Amino acid sequence: MAEAAVTHELGAAVRSQLYRVAASPRLTPRDRMVLEVCRVYGRVQPGTALTRLRHIADKAPGEWAENLVRALAEIASEPGNLALVLVLVLVLVLERVSGWADGGGGSADVAAAALLRLLHGDQDMPDVPAELERGGLAPEPVASAWAASSRSGHAVRPVLWSWLDALARHGRGDGAAATSLLGAAARDPGLADELGRCARRWSYAHTRASPAVEALRRSLDQILRRKPCFVNCSRR
After folding, report:
1. Binning pLDDT at 50, 70 and 90, where does residue 207 land?
2. Does residue 164 contact residue 213 with C-beta atoms inside 8 Å?
3. For residue 87, what pLDDT is reported?
4. Max CA pair span of the chain
5. Whole-angstrom Cα distance, residue 217 to residue 73?
6. What whole-number distance in Å separates Cα of residue 38 and Cα of residue 48?
7. Alpha carbon 7 to chain centroid, angstroms
8. Is it the case that residue 2 has pLDDT exceeding 60?
């Protein structure tokens, strides 16, 4: 069915049927089928698959969360289409998912978990900081993803720590990865506070200073000085 969903002859009809099932207010066993079909065909057509997955996330029970997160992560990690998938996921998908995280409801936890998994990455996932530094991805949608992740209440510190590691290895204090973090910090007090604490602890834990991390800390200090209410207004 996933193959049929992307064919010229049958694709429109199959996607329409998938949409009718997903958009129905009642949760049925067919929604599980739609989720799995979207997980597969979404690697080729992420936009339409994500629309259907969002409808399912809005009505699915909590035990479906891991399957939904896995579907979103797999759509983002399609090898061979990394630049396309990252642009679509972190512009189309993550901006949309960021809206889910802001909006609350049944899909908020799914959205936040998916955002953090995409930002963290692993051997099977896109390397978002590296792609930012290569210029294959703009900082703005990634900043939106970071801000939404922070507002969700999920723990972002392990992911921030991995990004500081990446900055120390390959990044620049004025590079795109740092820009995305600072952009998110400028719009979210909780993230600014958490990033500041995490960066300090990272520096204390390493005997050799990282110019990129120290530059990030200086820029973050400037943000906090310009917005003195950040520390007091932090939600942490």
Report:
1. confident
2. yes
3. 44
4. 61
5. 30
6. 9
7. 29
8. yes
Chain centre to alpha carbon of residue 168: 21
Type of residue numbered 49: A
- Contacts for 227-235 with beta carbons within 8 Å, 24 or more apart? 227/186, 227/189, 227/192, 229/189, 230/189, 230/192, 230/193, 231/189, 231/193, 233/189, 234/189, 234/190, 234/192, 234/193, 235/151, 235/189, 235/190
Question: What amino acid is encoded at 184 in this protein?
Answer: A
Give per-residue pLDDT as tens, 58-85. Answer: 788 778 878 887 887 788 777 654 444 4
pLDDT at 108 (0 to 100): 62
pLDDT tens figures, 28-60 = 999 999 999 999 999 888 888 888 988 888 788
Task: Give how far the C-alpha of residue 81 lies from the chain's centroid of Cα atoms, to the nearest Å.
Answer: 17
**CB neighbour list of residue 18: distance below 8 Å, 6 or more residues apart:** 5, 34, 37, 38, 52
Q: How far, in whole angstroms, is CA 88 from its chain's centroid?
A: 12
For residues 141 and 179, the answer to whether their CB atoms sit within 8 Å is no
Tell me what the mean pLDDT of segment 159-169 comes to.
Answer: 92
Start-to-end CA distance of the chain, whole Å, equals 45
d(CA 21, CA 122): 33
Where b means 16+ CB within 10 Å and e means fewer, 86-121 reads bbbbbbebbebbbebbeeeebbbbbbbbbbbbbbbb
Residue with tokens 């802001």: 102
pLDDT given for residue 90 in this prediction: 46
Report the C-alpha gap between 216 and 140 in whole angstroms. 17
Q: Do the beta carbons of residue 178 and residue 216 sit within 8 Å?
A: yes
